[in-house]
Amino acid sequence: MASVFTCGVEDLLFSGSRFVWNLTVSTLRRWYTERLRACHQVLRTWCGLRDVYQMTEGRHCQVHLLDDRRLELLVQPKLLSRELLDLVASHFNLKEKEYFGITFTDDTGQQNWLQLDHRVLDHDLPKKPGPTILYFAVRFYIESISFLKDKTTVELFFLNAKSCVHKGQIEVDSETVFKLAAFVLQEAKGDYTSCPKGASPFKHLT
């Protein structure tokens, strides 16, 4: 009788141990699954917010200068357009920067100027992948080049005019085109000379 009772107790203890074990395993599995799901959710959230985070840290921009250089920079969220213009102007040691500005082309193809008293990233910049393209250019023109005081300003006005004619942004008649081309050649190669050695660089133009 005692042995039967003992066996019954052992079976009960064994069954209880299996129950506790199964409950423990089930609890651990559920805890692991929940934590794994939480980790996946965190990863998805992080991946989704990565671009937003990068935008809050700044935006990669490429400023095209009039001398064909490219200025790569990271525009911070609080950077004013005026400060960006000062930064670009410093690459030319430009004193008369009031004639110049920075422009961009939006998603509709419309050209817009950065407003100097606004932050750069507050503008409706294009949302294309890659760095945002900005252009440094003449914004305000004058009646005569003689009003300009600094030779750097004169050179930048010349480069801006050459670029506008080349891109078709300024319409000129054929006679003016040849005259402008002559000025460009004079600036690049110097005054015309009739000697064979001096004329050789121009043979491919004929």
From TrEMBL:
InterPro entries: Band_41_domain, FERM/acyl-CoA-bd_prot_sf, FERM_2, FERM_central, FERM_domain, FERM_N, FRMD4A/B, Ubiquitin-like_domsf. It holds the Pfam family FERM_M. Residues 59-206 form the FERM domain. One of its GO terms (cellular component) is adherens junction. Signal peptide: none annotated. Coiled coil: none annotated. One of its GO terms (biological process) is establishment of epithelial cell polarity. It comes from the Eukaryota. Gene3D superfamilies: 1.20.80.10, Phosphatidylinositol 3-kinase Catalytic Subunit, Chain A, domain 1. This is FERM domain containing 4B. It comes from Rhinolophus ferrumequinum.
